[in-house]
Amino acid sequence: MTSPLAAAKRFDSRPENGVRAPRASLFEYVRACGLASLVLGVSKDPNAKVTILLVSPANGRPTLAVKAPTTRGAECAVRAETGLLTALEKVRSERLLSTVPRVVDLVEFEGRTAVVMTALPGVPMTTAYMRPGHTARLARVAADFRAVGGWLAELQAATAGARAQLEMDAGVTAHLSERFAGERRIADDIARLRELHDRLRANVVPRTAVHGDLWMGNVLLTGRDVSGVVDWEAGASSGSPVRDLVRFAHMYALYLDRRTRPGRYVRGHAGLRAGKWGAGVEYALTGSGWFPDMFRNFLRTSLTGLGASAASWHDAALCGIAEVAALTDDPDFARRHLELFRRMSGAPRDRAAGRAAEGA
Q1: Which stretch of DSSP H or E encloses residue 315?
Q2: Which pTM was predicted?
Q3: Which CATH architecture has domain 123-357?
Q4: Cα 281 to Cα 278: distance, rounded to the nearest angstrom
């Protein structure tokens, strides 16, 4: 019997130097490869993508995944992801490449270009994260940070290029200025953010491949190991590796109180009371306890491994909050992150410096 990948090659339009136009529709592709289709979900952001799994009828396991855009903006994101994944195929690490989707083909979906990729094994980290008690236990949280930290170190080592100033702007200030134009306080926000960027530029780190949206939902685990990382549309083949470090830590902290009623203390975290949006991040940055210690040590250790100062962890974390405010598609999520940035970056500088000095 012809394999699904072999059958699909008759429609092969895989990009080589850039992203080419597809030569077959998604319907034709699925019919040719003989796989069953399963709509996994539709993203809720304004530039939504439909994710479709193509499943083997023989064993019921996903073989391919299709990401199909529903808007012009979503199509641009899909094409960007296609180009990045194609570039990453040149990485000389079979272990790392086994955790990254491989572009198989491009197909047409309602007049737009969709990408067909290999499906990766594993369960999203969010599955365990959202189970009652998971984030209340130091050992389980430590295993999550260790798994992602190890995978990131491997990605960064395999793709490391020339060393350069630690650059956390990459258009963030411009996007913030445009998104919140006309707001009375935005000029002050931008001024504070530029101070943070300037201090971080005192560090020199290698430029590496960047995922760009490294949160728990995009990390797949088999046991306690990272077996896949998906959704690379916000990434870059050469950028600041610190972006991924702060994004993962930030998002892990952000949802710590998700399963706790407002006003109550979060199980396992005596210093965290649910209710105020972003309370988990504030707890990680300014609180005391095993989780804030783990959050900060993750950033300190990772920064040191890149050749940066461990004392830069706080500035980097604040820049990560501002990046979400600037670049996320969801306007409400952006607004909440801007308010969180204001709240956290407005803390007395001597207190922030004292926290940073702990890791020096």
Answers
A1: helix 313-327
A2: 0.90
A3: Alpha-Beta Complex (3.90)
A4: 5
